[in-house]
């Protein structure tokens, strides 16, 4: 057999950055080999079950032969209409389900295709730093020039629009509140200000909103669509709000021209999610808000366990009002990747290094609240015993 040497990777594929999580996985494999118990808090995949009503809807659909064919646009009406009802009930925004809502195979798919639909190679995308890492890959696939917008602790991790270089002609600005990784939240006046700023410059405001319902106490996250739909697209996901990450379903809502462009691109690429998954999502979106609040409370209890424990161990950490993450700094941290790799390899506790989210995340670590409170407390204790600055394991 001859060794294959030709690389078939396009410039586009090669431009997608490597994931720091590969390094983390190696460190975890080392911990497993050493017989350590693993507490994985590095990935924000909900451990809660989807609503039983959604599972029932999916089960019923699998017995209905009418769901077995390719789903056409008209077949997506029940999900689009359920999404419109949800947006109206929850945020008081009235959208036309025919032209202003489009089902997605997850917000991540939606974002990558939206960028392809509304930009041309070489266009500029304003991207927060730190941010959800796949944003960098999606921008690279679309051939965009990324202009970083620093999110700083002293500004509540909100971008300062006056930082944007004067005269910069950005095609789109991407935001995400409640925020991954910082857990920061933004109020409606912020979205109104940003939407006006974007409209004045001909910049599309894209708001990625997967944590819309993962909020604590009396806090409720607003929607960017409350600032108007013109020039605004919001990406919703059932992954976190309804614990349906594996189902790959969400929806885009907002500016009809942008959504029409997205529908054209998606028409060349996919045929929508299976109708049973769409039925499950529509059922979930129509459920009373009270059920979502109960699931969110579980994450709130975890936050209330972890944050004081970390503070007792000298961490600097704020009490998040939303999201499924805790973002903080341990005493004496110099290099987040070094810390996270050592922690995973030597204690079995995996947390995400801030640097994985962009250089603006350096100096911080992110905990995903995806384990019960007792394991979070154990993780905090084990991290406190991590020897300071011991050499990196040989990986
Ligand atoms: C900010 C953000 N956007 C999108 C996603 C992925 O959403 P989906 O599962 O709908 O693709 C995540 C998942 O962690 C996220 O944190």
TrEMBL record:
Gene Ontology molecular function: transaminase activity
InterPro entries reported for this sequence: Aminotransferase_I/II_large, LL-DAP_aminotransferase, PyrdxlP-dep_Trfase, PyrdxlP-dep_Trfase_major, PyrdxlP-dep_Trfase_small
UniProt keywords, alphabetically: Aminotransferase, Transferase
Species name: Deinococcus sonorensis
Keyword Transferase in annotation: yes
Cofactor(s) needed for function: pyridoxal 5'-phosphate
One Pfam family per UniProt: Aminotran_1_2
SUPFAM superfamilies per record: PLP-dependent transferases (SSF53383)
Residue ranges constituting the Aminotransferase class I/classII large domain according to the UniProt record: 37-381
Gene3D superfamilies with a match to the protein in the record: Aspartate Aminotransferase, domain 1 (3.90.1150.10), Type I PLP-dependent aspartate aminotransferase-like (Major domain) (3.40.640.10)
Name the record gives this protein: Aminotransferase class I/II-fold pyridoxal phosphate-dependent enzyme
Origin: domain of life: Bacteria
């Amino acid at each position: 057999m001859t060794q294959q040497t030709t690389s078939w990777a396009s410039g586009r594929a090669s431009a997608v950055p490597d994931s720091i999580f590969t390094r983390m996985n190696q460190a975890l494999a080392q911990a497993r080999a050493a017989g350590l118990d693993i507490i994985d808090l590095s990935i924000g995949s909900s451990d809660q079950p989807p609503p039983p009503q959604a599972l029932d809807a999916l089960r019923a659909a699998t017995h209905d032969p009418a769901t077995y064919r390719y789903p056409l646009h008209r077949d997506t009406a029940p999900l689009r209409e359920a999404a419109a009802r949800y947006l109206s009930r929850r945020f008081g925004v009235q959208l036309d389900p025919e032209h202003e809502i489009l089902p997605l195979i997850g917000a991540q798919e939606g974002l990558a295709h939206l960028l392809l639909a509304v930009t041309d190679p070489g266009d500029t995308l304003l991207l927060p730093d730190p941010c959800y890492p796949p944003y960098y890959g999606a921008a690279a696939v679309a051939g965009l020039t990324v202009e970083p917008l620093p999110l700083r602790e002293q500004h509540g991790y909100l971008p300062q629009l006056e930082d944007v270089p004067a005269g910069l002609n950005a095609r789109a600005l991407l935001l995400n509140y409640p925020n991954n990784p910082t857990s920061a939240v933004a109020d409606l006046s912020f979205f109104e200000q940003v939407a006006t700023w974007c409209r004045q410059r001909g910049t599309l405001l894209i708001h990625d909103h997967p944590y819309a319902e993962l909020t604590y106490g009396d806090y409720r996250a607003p929607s960017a669509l409350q600032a108007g739909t013109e020039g605004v697209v919001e990406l919703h996901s059932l992954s976190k709000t309804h614990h349906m990450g594996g189902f790959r379903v969400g929806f885009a809502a907002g500016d009809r021209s942008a959504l029409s462009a997205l529908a054209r691109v998606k028409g060349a690429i996919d045929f929508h999610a299976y109708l049973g998954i769409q039925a499950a999502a529509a059922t979930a979106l129509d459920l009373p808000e009270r059920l979502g609040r109960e699931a969110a409370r579980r994450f709130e209890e975890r936050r209330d366990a972890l944050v004081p424990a970390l503070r007792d161990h000298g961490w600097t950490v704020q009490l998040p009002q939303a999201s499924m993450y805790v973002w903080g700094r341990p005493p004496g941290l110099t290099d987040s990747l070094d810390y996270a790799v050592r922690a995973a390899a030597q204690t079995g506790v995996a947390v995400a290094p801030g640097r994985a989210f962009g250089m603006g995340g350096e100096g911080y670590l992110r905990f995903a609240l995806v384990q019960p409170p007792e394991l979070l407390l154990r993780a905090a204790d084990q991290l406190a015993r991590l020897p300071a600055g011991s050499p990196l394991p040989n990986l």
